[in-house]
Amino acid sequence: MTETERLAAIEDIKALKARYFRGVDSKDAALLRSVFTDDAVTDFRSESPDGSDALLMHDPDAFVRDTLAVLDGTVSAHAGHMAEIIVET
Q1: Quick one: which of 4, 25, 52, 89 is 20 to 30 A from 75 by CA?
Q2: Residue from 76, 66, 75 nearest 29 by CA
């Protein structure tokens, strides 16, 4: 991987993270779903006091649906700062 390719990959990751935040904050299901591959796994067990296995999901459609349901009626404003991204080849 060239340095240019590495830097482009890092910028792509930053843009993906920004789209994720915008999808969550705007409650845009299609945008939020677009950041996940069909075989994506989401694991938010570390965010739960009891480490609930319900927060480990193998279905990105269900993740989007459940996330937006939990956030219904709320206002959120995510901001990603100072990303530490390492590209391993």
Answers
A1: 52
A2: 66
